[in-house]
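re the bet — no i am not wrong, look at it urself. input seq straight from the record:
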Amino acid sequence: MIDRRDLDFLLFELLDTDALFARPRFADHSRETLSAAIDTAAAIAADHFAPHNHTADANEPRFKDGRAVVIPEVKAALKHFIDAGFMAATADYELGGMQLPFAVHTAVGALFAAANVGTKSYPSLTMAAANVLRAFGTPDQQARFMRPMLEGRFFGTMALTEPQAGSSLSDLRTQAVPAEDGTYRITGNKIFISAGDHDLAENIVHLVLARLPGAPPGVKGISLFAVPKVLVNDDGSLGERNDVTLAGLIHKMGWRGTTSTMLNFGEQGGAVGTLVGAPNQGLACMFHMMNEARIGVGNGAAALGCAAYRHARTYAREHPQGRALDSKDPTTPQLPIIEHPDVRRMLLAQKAYAEGALALCLTAARLVDDKDTAPTPEERADAHRLLEILTPMVKSWPSQWCQEAISLAMQVHGGYGYTREYPIEQLYRDNRLNPIHEGTHGIQALDLLGRKVMMEQGRAFSLLCACIEGTVAAALRMPGLIDEAAALSETVGRVKTVTATLRAAIAEHGPTRALSNASVYLEMLGHVVVAWLWLRQGLLADSRLPGVADPGERAFYEGKRHACRYFLRWELPKTAHQLDRLEALDDTWFAVPAACL
């Protein structure tokens, strides 16, 4: 339920993915090879992921004899995914990979998430864990764990959260004690571990955060360990069961096809683990996985928003109800509800949220490619800076605003939208988990305003503003976009002023007061960035339309123009009040005593 034409537009027109073919890593690729990968993913998603989406939702994993049992359709679908090579999509050829650009990998991920986000989560977590081992693992860990993960024989997780700690990783208690053979014995409890147990693979490799004896308190004393469910012998064969126990399953409102687990490490004396990276540097290693996962969460939210929009659009085109407002004859045929202005209002808002979110996620993914492969060190460094500042927004903005898109899709369906017989109800529940996945809005907001905006004396923020201003300058030369460009120009000017005020307040008074409004800043800047991406899409549509005769193509580009117009005229102005309160260092929630709540 992702519009293939929109994927092509974003990848090849907005983001110029063709330019990657000049770089050595992608020299073997062409638009044809990338399109073939996307076509294959679309077919597998439609034929093997989508058919059991509702079935998996209605038949959650079961706890049986100490293990999690998943419906068989999930394993069958993942076999098609693995056999097509998608588990190693971005990996080196030498590792059996396809060396796909990360932007294309992200587009492929959107196709699978739109079809069945619960089943898609298993390979997503595995690929992210494999990338951590590729970046920080020893040769032995890469051979023992990473290669089987890329082959799809082993799956992976990240085990961070503990019952007493939640998002406060500095309070983790899981212990890792060195053993004589150079391994470690892991003891502790982890909770909310997605894909923590199942029968979908030969083995599961848990990446576990734990503390070494004598480690410094807080996050500076956290190390990362690879802890397999089943021990792996030196020859690669499976050995005895490790001391990792499934304590129970958690039943969430959405993503019901994904096991959410409580895991106990060390009930029989200690689970065998090996250190990944340097001692006490576990959080830095894990953030390598978490940042990729944050793009994945935003991309999954965008995919669910796009799916809901397309369901609503189809329903609105096919469902007759009512007549034109100026029609007085009740015997005339009913109109499809898409003819009613308020339904078109809701559909246009959905389109702007969902397609804007997808553009945001693919923009970040394209920056991953530039960070890794751009021709010069300066270009790679700037791509890294932009990616750093965008990542909190990539995770949070789609999670928030695609929920609004899905809510509007539910409303378009009328009473049917609230029933399990139609798909919107499940999409609503599935996406409602994304605001908490990989860190809440509040955590992303503190990261954005407290770190990313401040780093290198605001260099990443200045670079982002310069990119937006470059698009504004181009749009001001287009007669059809002058008003929209002027509005964004004025808003960016205010954003720069308000950000300077917040930075000064943090420097002078400390972070507490200024950062109390960080979530508002995150939402505001996310809206500004998506407005920029819509202005870019509007510019492209304006430049393409004069040469387009095909009615379908004209409708596509005109749809982009209308969504751009909507977002810049109706959504961007919402930031004005937020900027007012941010600039005033408003203390509404900072000042209220806990006893008054």
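see?? The domain at 4-146 is CATH 1.10.540.10 (Butyryl-Coa Dehydrogenase, subunit A; domain 1). told u. also The first strand starts at residue 62 and ends at 64. so pay up
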